[in-house]
């Protein structure tokens, strides 16, 4: 990704990818905490996690070292933020409430992707004469792709991903407890699938999402 580029250009390119990832990861965790509060659990708020401040959600390895290292090595970028704590005992209906708390994460990334597509479309239709219009569109295309990948990845029906908690709503409690007890195994499986490139089957088509979403909104605006 950075071959043949001067250091300043390479740094700007890295920021164009890393900043959307950082914000998207943190917004994802904020969404979990916000819905948890709406459902009766104030744990995230009391621990200072009900905020969009990236440092409140950042994990030194998963949010900074790993994604930046992989970015500079030209490898598929991978990362995570600290999970927002949720106390199920504070929820009125834990089984249903945890479903919505878990679903809030991927849904927040879908929302960010849609907002970025609207901004990108507005830039193309109404601001295309600006000298930095292309740079804005490129930035938001990256933003859309990152959020699409985060949403789909987190919807995979495996613990510890949100998809595992969403699936729990429809599984017998005993079976789900066994799956949760072995989530350390599925964590390593997921990491292997990502590092090996096997998930490109899912992520490959998502490279077109930014263009498709933006084109959809452009057609609405013209």
List the helices and strands and how they pair.
Elements: H1 7-38, H2 43-46, H3 54-57, H4 60-73, H5 94-126, H6 133-154, H7 162-168, H8 173-181, H9 183-196, H10 200-206, H11 209-221
State the shape: globular
Write down the Rg. Answer: 19 Å
Indicate how many domains the architecture comprises: 1
Number of H/I helices: 11
Percent in strands: under 5%
Q: Classify the secondary structure makeup into a structural class.
A: mainly alpha
Largest sheet: none
**Helicity, as a percent range:** over 70%
Low-pLDDT regions: none
**Overall residue-averaged pLDDT value:** 88
Structure in words:
This protein has one domain (7-221). Helix content is 72%, strand content 0%. It has eleven helices and no strands. The chain has helices spanning 7-38, 43-46, 54-57, 60-73, 94-126, 133-154, 162-168, 173-181, 183-196, 200-206, 209-221. The protein is globular and about 60 Å long. The model has no long low-confidence stretch (mean pLDDT 88).
């Amino acid at each position: 990704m950075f071959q043949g580029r001067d250091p300043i250009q390479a740094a700007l390119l890295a920021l164009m990818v890393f900043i959307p990832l950082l914000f998207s990861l943190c917004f994802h965790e904020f969404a979990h905490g916000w819905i948890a509060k709406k459902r009766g659990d104030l744990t995230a708020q009391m621990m200072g996690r009900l905020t969009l401040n990236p440092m409140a959600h950042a994990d030194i390895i998963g949010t900074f070292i790993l994604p930046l290292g992989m970015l500079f090595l030209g490898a598929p970028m991978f990362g995570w933020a600290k999970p927002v704590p949720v106390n199920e005992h504070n929820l009125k209906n834990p089984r249903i409430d945890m479903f919505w708390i878990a679903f809030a994460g991927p849904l927040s990334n879908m929302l960010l992707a849609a907002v970025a597509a609207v901004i990108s479309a507005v830039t193309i239709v109404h601001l295309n004469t600006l000298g930095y219009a292309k740079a804005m569109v490129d930035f938001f295309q990256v933003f859309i792709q990152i959020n699409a990948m985060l949403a789909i990845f987190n919807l995979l029906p495996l613990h510890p991903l949100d998809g595992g908690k969403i699936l729990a709503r429809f599984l017998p409690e005993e079976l789900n407890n066994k799956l949760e007890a072995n989530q350390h195994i599925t964590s390593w499986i997921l990491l292997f699938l990502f590092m090996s490139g096997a998930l490109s089957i899912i992520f490959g088509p998502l490279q077109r999402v930014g263009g498709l979403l933006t084109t959809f909104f452009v057609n609405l605006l013209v």
